[in-house]
Amino acid sequence: MTQCTVSTLPDSSLPPRSYFMPLRRFRDQLHSGGVLRVVTCSHELRSKCGSRSALRRRSTYASGRLRTGPHWSFVFDPAGRLCYYWSMVVSLAFLYNLWVIVYRFAFQEINNETLVVWFCLDYFSDFLYLMDILFHFRTGYLEDGVLQTDAAKLRAHYMNSTTFYIDCLCLLPLDFLYLSIGFNSILRSFRLVKIYRFWAFMDRTERHTNYPNLFRSTSLIHYLLVIFHWNGCLYHIIYKNNGFGSKNWVYHDTETADVVKQYLQSYYWCTLALTTIEVARSPTYKIVLRSRQSSVKSQCGVPAL
């Protein structure tokens, strides 16, 4: 019996096995943090490498003949944490506009003393709105249950959706009218159309929180405070416009008061008007006595008159 020994010669065209460890780490970190890292290669590189496994091995460690590396692109996972945290940031920008726009229009408009502060806050929120549009261009979407990561498809899908036109409506540059009509915060009312982003954030938080009842109670209190805030501002706007021809039903002592006192007075009176329920008239003594007499007679068997 003859013994055959087979010796395997190392392939000089392939790198050592230790070179492939970063590829395994790349595979494990592909969906980390809600960001999908997509590697796209050219058709020429694909034809030279042959199979997909060879493409993955040889695209990273390019030899002298293949010097074309992979093209990296980032796509945000719509169900990832990064999208959730970003929606929270955009929701804070929306809440700033929700509370501040009507307050400035009713009580204290932009003046020379507060010009820098209000402009910095306003245009920082506008910058977040603009970044949200760019964020949508790189956010994936599901098509037939498959997450789409192609840049052209993502751009076409977003620009053909209603969300794109809503986001553009939120950034209408009506602030340029400040140059002709003066400072008027009501021109920024289109920023409130971003409320759909706030509702999506609240819905997702309610579904994923460990304390849903506490979250619902907190959101209900916030909604009530927003309603009272807007009603107080509208109450003061009516007062400034002479109360529709009469000031007998409005509060007094506000012309010499500061802005904080005016706001607190408006907030108090509108809250009082919204929460006051008309009390039912109490019965008179005769009616109560007659009802008692009729009940006693009915118990004794005597018919009531």
Q: Could you list some keywords that capture this structure?
A:
intracellularly cGMP-activated cation channel activity; single chain; transmembrane; 12 helices; disordered N terminus; 3 domains; intracellularly cAMP-activated cation channel activity; protein-containing complex binding; mainly alpha
The neighbouring-strand order within the major sheet is: 1-2
Order of helices and strands: HEHHEHHEEHHHHHHH
Beta-strand proportion: 5-15%
Radius of gyration: 34 Å
The number of helical elements comes to: 12
Secondary-structure content class: mainly alpha
Give the beta-strand count. 4
Keywords: Membrane, Receptor, Transmembrane, Transmembrane helix
Transmembrane segments: 84-103, 115-137, 164-187
InterPro entries: CNG_cation_channel (IPR050866), Ion_trans_dom (IPR005821)
Membrane topology: Multi-pass membrane protein
Write up this protein.
The protein has 305 residues and is mostly helical. It folds into three domains: 20-76, no CATH class; 77-216, no CATH class; 227-292, no CATH class. Helices cover 56% and strands 6% of the residues. The strands form two sheets. Strands 1-2 form a two-stranded antiparallel ribbon. α2 crosses α3 and α4 (81-106) packs across α9 (195-208). The protein is globular and about 65 Å long. The N and C termini lie far apart (131 Å). Mean pLDDT is 75; it is low at 1-13, 19-24 and 39-67.
Gist of the model:
This protein has 305 residues and is mostly helical. Helix content is 56%, strand content 6%. InterPro entries: CNG_cation_channel, Ion_trans_dom.
